[in-house]
Amino acid sequence: MKKFPTTNKKLAEWVNKMAKLCQPDDIVWIDGTVEQRKQLEKEALSTGELIELNQDKLPGCFLHRTAPDDVARTEHLTFICTKIKHDAGPNNNWMSPAAAYAKARVIFKGSMSGRTMYVIPFSMGPVGSSFSKIGVELTDSRYVVLNMNIMTRIGNEVLRQLEKDDHFTKCLHSKADLNISRRLILHFPEDNTIWSVGSGYGGNVLLGKKCLSLRIASFLAKKEKWLAEHMLIMGIEEPNGHIEYIAAAFPSACGKTNLSMLLPPEGLRVKGYRIWTVGDDIAWMRVDSDGSLWAVNPETGFFGVAPGTNSSTNPNMVETIKKNTIYTNVLLKKDGTVWWEGADGEVPNEGIDWLGRPWKPGLIDGQGNIIKGANSNSRFTAPIVNCPGASYRIDQHHGVPISAIIFGGKRAHLAPLVYESFNWQHGVFVGATMASKRTAAQVGKLGEVRRDPMAMFPFCGYNMAYYFAHWLDMGKRMQKAPKIFHVNWFRRGSDGKFLWPGFSENLRVLEWILQRCSNKVGAVETAIGYVPYPADIDLTGLQLDPGILEKLLEVRKQEWREELKGIKGFFKQFHKDLPRELWDEFELLQKRLKEK
Ligand code: GTP
Ligand code: SPV
Ligand code: MN
Fold this sequence. Notes:
This protein is α/β, with parallel strands linked by helices. The protein folds into 3 domains: 9-30 and 74-224, 3-Layer(aba) Sandwich (Phosphoenolpyruvate Carboxykinase, domain 1); 50-64 and 301-381, Phosphoenolpyruvate Carboxykinase, domain 2 (Beta Complex), CATH 2.170.8; 229-300 and 394-594, Phosphoenolpyruvate Carboxykinase, domain 3 (Alpha-Beta Complex), CATH 3.90.228. The protein binds guanosine-5'-triphosphate, sulfopyruvate and manganese (II) ion.
């Protein structure tokens, strides 16, 4: 047996045990060096795992295609495995740890034979920060190694850290035969362990991301009194040079990445605003000694949605993905560059689609639907440092102080453009009653409105009733708690079109939010919260009919009374576990909606 490059006995024993189960031909420890990465890229090109893109136009960029039925997170195959079923709650699929290990062991057995097992030591958060958590992922996928290299801090510096601190999340992944009927994403929070088998798709296999940084971390965060959230973090530099930081939770494919790196619209840029991106997907937040909430982004890369990304929606991202980027399931153009629906430039007149088939515009499938060149959930993996607006505080162990927390989703009706909660407890209610249209980021029926509290429904690693209680408790632990807001960029008019232009124009709403945080503007008190006076939203340079803004800000009581039914049904599934405070807020809202 080869000597392992670690003195950590627990780690060495575990790697040996897993290797015995999976039977790889070889074990390779990932050291984080450029030489090793280059070697893996070379191998991945020779096996077809990666396709080289035009290195003049896209240096360091590659294309990867997943299996056709492996293009999004599979929530129905994702389980929380706690000893007691109740601890996983009605929000999770559950299996007992014994049953789950037994079921997965059969699939893992010998799954790496003929392959190499890579050992990836990784740190979520700056190495050595008290915010950070260490994981070690074992995988038989070079694609996973190369993506983890972008998304997390990996290699020897983490191994050294593991010699000082024995705590790490044990992450085991094997592609096995990529068969959806033999696919399982299992979380064992009580064992600090993740087992994922039968998939090669991002959220299922980059185990530092949703599996560790949200499902396992949310469980740890409850125990250790902090928050692990599905949130972007961004800094808004005000005209006077001061930077305020906000964190925002929108469900998958609902606009976190786009908001986190927006460029101010012309009309506001003249005021001197600048945006600094700290993170686009995950925030870990702690109460610091100053009594306020501080956040770090545990990741170092973006795993972003490709369709719709272009120079007008997200110019910073267009810059970010020009080098050292791995594209997944996009269209390959003849010149060795890539394309997706809603990309810059002309629609190419030919290419190879995400399934590897010849493609041209206007192709129709058997059901009469247009065949897309890129999968709707096609993505790119790119380093944050590539982003022109990357915050200089990304690597700071302390993180950034958060002034406002924003919840939001895709709602065609109901939710106004923006409103502010009355206080922390009401803000928790606002987050807990969030709902959004289902998107392509997870397998399932698109477009259906589903409840997604705090954008964490698919990611909360324990009973969500206890999670709500934890949020309420966190509010009590802060002397300077952030204010909580709700936004909706996706309200539609009677013609079915979006009322709000969105994207960079969203800064106009953030400006109002910051003004509310510093008590600079008043607001209209409505049944659901504080709504802006239309005159307080700066529309300079934007052609928006004042009538439209009024529509965007309208609170339609009848629609909200209908909404109460959905909220009640959702809350009821938590039975007596649902914190009393949330029922109190429900009754208060009901009462306010009855008035006038
Ligand atoms: P995950 O990575 O899945 O967590 O998604 P995300 O929340 O980061 O979503 P992202 O920013 O990638 O946006 C998803 C989709 O929403 C893209 O197709 C965007 O073009 C679209 N989108 C984002 N912001 C806006 C907006 O302000 N208005 C409108 N109309 N669409 C938007
Ligand atoms: C999401 O679905 O919320 C994502 C992409 O950010 S994944 O990593 O697949 O979860
Ligand atoms: Mn996400």
